[in-house]
Design goal:
about 0% strand; globular; mainly alpha; 5 helices; single chain
Length: about 130
């Protein structure tokens, strides 16, 4: 899936929850979290890992562990200044980040996702793809 389209689930989720509960700043952070996993394409370009390695494309950034990490990090950054409960911030950002590997899993590109990183670095594909 094209990287620039991964912001859409974050905005759809914000609209479903309600703009008053999410707010534009959190919705923007969710959109960034939705696109962020594709930053892993820079790792092979920098020579730090191969394209299909653990840190290569669709590696650790396309895992549920990374999504949870982004949710926790976002809640920590919001801290005391948060206008929303930190649990909502963490859950929203984690779901926005996790939407990226789910959508990528539906695309047959030859790369599977490391869904269970850091527990398991094995790449797994979804059984059904449209």
């Amino acid at each position: 899936m094209a990287t620039y389209l991964h912001f859409a689930p974050a905005l759809a989720l914000a609209a479903a929850i309600g703009p008053q509960r999410i707010g534009w700043r959190l919705a923007l952070a969710g959109a960034v979290c939705g696109v962020l996993p594709d930053a892993d394409v820079l790792v092979p370009l920098l020579g730090l890992d191969s394209l299909d390695g653990t840190y290569g494309h669709r590696g650790f950034t396309h895992s549920l562990g990374f999504a949870l990490l982004m949710g926790a990090l976002g809640a920590c950054l919001a801290g005391r200044r948060a206008l929303r409960p930190l649990g909502l911030v963490a859950l929203y950002l984690a779901l926005c980040t996790a939407s990226h590997p789910v959508l990528d899993g539906l695309v047959d590109s030859g790369f599977c996702n490391a869904w269970l990183w850091p527990l398991d670095g094995t790449r797994h594909c979804l059984a059904w793809r449209p």
